[in-house]
Amino acid sequence: MILLRKLKLNDLDEYKFWKLPQHKYHILNGPYFKKNSKEEVEELIVSLKNDFSEGKAVLDHKRIISNDKDQLIGEVSWYWKSEETNWMEIGIVIFNDEFWNKGIGFMAFKLWIDELFNTKNEIVRLGITTWSGNHGMIKLAEKLGMKKEAVYRKARIINGEYFDSISYGILKEEWFDYTKKDS
User: Fold this and answer.
1) Whole-angstrom Cα distance, residue 177 to residue 92?
2) How wide is the angle at C-alpha 66 spanned by C-alphas 171 and 91, nearest 5°?
3) Which helix H or strand E contains 47, and what residues bound it?
4) CB distance 170 to 147 below 8 Å
5) Tens digit of pLDDT for each residue in 39-96?
6) Mean pLDDT across the chain, nearest whole number?
7) How many other C-beta atoms can be found within 10 angstroms of the C-beta atom of residue 172?
8) If we measure between CA atoms, which residue out of 154, 37, 168, 40 comes closest to residue 92?
9) pLDDT of 26
10) Residue 183, pLDDT score
11) What percentage of the chain has pLDDT greater than the value 70?
12) Of 123, 139, 128, 136, the residue nearest 165 (C-alpha)
């Protein structure tokens, strides 16, 4: 069973471990962006510990993906692409490659999209942006009923090679139609 939950204080050591830059998922998860150094990850964890101790909201734009053993598998996230037009972008990462290709990303992203459309009534559309070398993310978007909306040619450089940036999206009414077929 796959669950989405908020980050907990007792997750922080494991969360720190997975956020460090040496993990395989960094090869696929926005490899064109600078990765946080070990020191920056340590600063993040200290900041999160302080937020927990002060009773502040912690990572409200993210949920931890866990299983019935409460293992930290990955995370899902959202950010505003255009708050003025009620458009969010969402993301997912499965930290441990032992959990890749098992349908966990599909289950977790489906739960996340449901949560966002059902709790944030103003949201009209959700989108994802990936790169042409991330075949798993492309297949996931298509499996979830998202439509390819944009291709920005040669927009990402990875190891000296150009890749396209690809955007997918789904409207709220399309999502509800998609999930009706599923039930």
Assistant:
1) 22
2) 35
3) helix 38-53
4) yes
5) 999 999 999 999 999 999 899 999 999 999 999 999 999 999 999 999 999 999 999 9
6) 94
7) 19
8) 168
9) 87
10) 60
11) 99
12) 128
Tell me if the pTM is above 0.90: yes
For CA atoms 13, 14, 19, 24, the dihedral sign is positive
pLDDT-derived band of residue 32, with 50, 70 and 90 as boundaries? confident
The tokens describing 57, both together, are: 């909201």
154 and 129 in contact (C-beta within 8 Å)? no
Question: Which residue matches tokens 């291709």?
Answer: 151
CB count within 10 Å of CB 6 equals 12
Number of Cβ within a 10 Å radius of residue 91 = 19
Per-residue DSSP letters for 53-115? Answer: HTT----TTEEEEEETT--EEEEEEEEEEEGGGTEEEEEEEE--GGGTTSSHHHHHHHHHHHH
Residues with Cβ within 8 Å of residue 75, at least 6 apart in sequence: 62, 63, 64, 65, 92, 93, 95
The tens digit of pLDDT for each residue in 142-159 reads 999 999 999 999 999 999
Residues 6+ apart with CB under 8 A from 155: 131, 162, 163, 164, 165
DSSP state of 1: -
